[in-house]
Each structure stands twice: as C-alpha cells, then as structure tokens.
From TrEMBL:
Keywords: Membrane, Transmembrane, Transmembrane helix. InterPro entries: DUF4386. The keyword Membrane applies. It comes from the Bacteria. This is DUF4386 domain-containing protein. The chain crosses the membrane at residues 15-36, 64-85, 97-121, 141-166, 178-197, 209-228. The lineage of its organism: Bacteria, Bacillati, Bacillota, Bacilli, Bacillales.
Length: 236
C-alpha cells in the first residue's frame, strides 16, 4: 500500500515537473530559434549574418543562453517522462528516456558551435579580414543547424516511443497519444530528408510547413495534459 502511494506521489510530481519544463522549453525555443536565430542568420549570406550578429552581440549571446535552458529542461523532461510512464510500460519508458538523453547530447554538441561562432564574432571586431571571419562564423552556424537537425531525428523517435507507451494505457486520452506519435513521425521524416536528401530541400520545407501544427501540438499538448490531468492520475 505504501509502495503504491509513493509511486503515485512520484508519478504526480513527475507530471508537474515535466509539464513545467516543457512549457519553459517552448518559450526558450520560440525566443532562441523562432526570434533571434531566424532574424540574425541569413542563409547563404555570410557577411550579412556576421554584421547582424556584430550589431546584436548581446541578442546572439542570449540565444545561446536560451539553448542552454533548452538543454537543461530537456534533461528534466527525460527524467519526468520516464518516471511518469514507467508504471505503464517500463521498458518503453526507459527507451524513450534514452532517446531523449541522446538527442540532448547531440543538441549540446550543436550548441557548442554557436559558442565558437560567438567567440569568432568577438575576434572579428578587431580584424579587417571580414570575409574570412564571416565564412568561419557561417561555418559554425551551419554546423549547429546540421547537427541539431540530425538530433531531431532521434527526438522524433523519442516522441514515437512516448506515444506508444501512452497508447498502452486507458488513462491517457488516445487523441493525445496519436498526436505525440504523429509529431514524432513528422520530426523524424522531415529531418531525415534535411540530413540525407538535401537535393529535396524545397520539398522538405513545404512538407515541414504542412506538418508544423502536429509537430508543435503533439508534445506541447502532452505537456499541458500532464499539468492539467496527468498530475491527478492514480495507479490501479
């Protein structure tokens, strides 16, 4: 009886912690990628990108800070999802947790290239070799984007695994489970295409626009459900 109570209590706490971490991560991602990165980085324009970052160094450093917050919250979500889903299917919950930890490790490597870019930008302020510096900065940013895109394939596998676990219980609404699986499939498909079929980039971008809603709604919907309903679950 006491064991069930402790397990219930831990599951409820993990639902709250994971839900809060997911929402925090979403805000950080909107700022770092949706606002800063997309406004400063101009694809194929190394010099313009360098000048944008030089003029907004603090903003670029805040983007890096945003990614660091995402990395930390990803670790929290890995733990929270595992603890919450473990009573439903321990093996799949563990697999999902390891997928997310692997994704977080890949993301950390990607973000290290933004840190390198930031250090190059500081050096560029005292250098007349603007073109060479611009190429180096763009190279680091391109490496960040490529490594992160590859990591999102693993992230998609994580969501698919989480969705499968959710489907194995009647306590999580099937619509939530399906949305999580669909989000995971969308992430993996799109970033397999970005990473391994670059000649179809235009098709991939169009497909990404179509799948953007399920990609966003899947995980965030699950996070909101965890905060509203998941924290009230009881293990039979």
């Amino acid at each position: 009886m006491n064991t069930n109570y402790n397990q219930n209590n831990m599951q409820k706490k993990s639902a709250i912690i994971a839900g809060i971490a997911l929402l925090t991560m979403t805000i950080a991602a909107f700022f770092a990628q949706g606002f800063v990165h997309s406004s400063l980085v101009v694809s194929g324009e190394a010099v313009i990108t360098l000048k944008n970052i030089q003029s907004n160094r603090l903003l670029f450093d805040l983007e890096i800070m945003g990614w660091m917050i995402i990395i930390i919250t990803d670790l929290v979500v890995s733990w929270g999802f595992y603890i919450f889903l473990k009573p439903f299917h321990q093996a799949y919950a563990l697999l999902g947790g390891w997928f997310r930890l692997l994704y977080t490790a890949i993301l950390s490597i990607a973000v290290s290239h933004l840190i390198i870019a930031s250090s190059i930008v500081r050096e560029s302020l005292f250098s007349k070799e603007i073109n060479e510096m611009a190429i180096q900065v763009m190279g680091s940013i391109t490496a960040f984007e490529a490594i992160w895109s590859f990591g999102l394939i693993i992230f998609g596998l994580h969501l698919i695994t989480v969705g499968i676990v959710a489907m194995k219980t009647n306590q999580i609404p099937k619509i939530i489970s399906i949305l999580v699986v669909l989000a995971g499939f969308s992430y993996s498909l799109i970033h397999v295409m970005y990473s391994f079929i670059p000649q179809l980039d235009n098709v991939t971008r169009f497909l990404e626009m179509i799948l953007m809603v399920p990609m966003f709604v899947g995980e965030i919907g699950f996070g909101i459900w965890l905060l509203v309903k998941g924290r009230k679950l009881s293990i039979d």
